[in-house]
Write a structure and sequence with these properties.
Layout: H1 4-19, E1 26-29, E2 35-38, E3 43-45, E4 49-51, H2 54-59, E5 70-75, E6 84-88, E7 91-95, H3 97-119
Antiparallel strand pairs: 1-2, 2-3, 4-5, 5-6, 6-7
Length: about 120
């Protein structure tokens, strides 16, 4: 059985490398009907995994025991000034777009590193 989230993440990263990122910030609808936020560096969409990093733990009280855990984007508001909501297993975070992008990049980097180690 294939690792569907890992495969999707790998294909998304490959697509970004081939096609390049979108040119500006804008909202659109993913084919499955979910909201998608296109940013100049990264595409964030509902269902994306975000890694709770040391920077996030330092910025938000009460997250010290969840360092390295993964949360899933639940909601991307239409107003870009509002926070992105993510949660998993009782962990709930509200982060701005820059923090979400940082968390997504950390998750993608970790997954690619783990896949490379597993291939060796």
């Amino acid at each position: 059985m294939t690792n569907q989230p890992g495969l999707k993440m790998f294909l998304d990263k490959l697509k970004l490398m081939v096609m390049g990122p979108p040119l500006n910030n804008q909202h659109s609808k993913h084919p499955d009907g979910n909201s998608v936020l296109h940013d100049s560096n990264l595409v964030l969409e509902i269902g994306n995994e975000l890694l709770i990093t040391d920077d996030i733990v330092k910025a938000y009280r009460g997250l010290s025991n969840v360092l390295g855990r993964v949360v899933i984007i639940d909601q991307i508001p239409a107003n870009q000034g509002r926070t992105i909501k993510a949660s998993a297993f009782g962990i709930q975070v509200n982060v701005d777009i820059n923090e979400a992008r940082h968390m997504r990049e950390a998750y993608v980097s970790r997954e690619l590193r783990e896949q490379a180690e597993a291939a060796v």
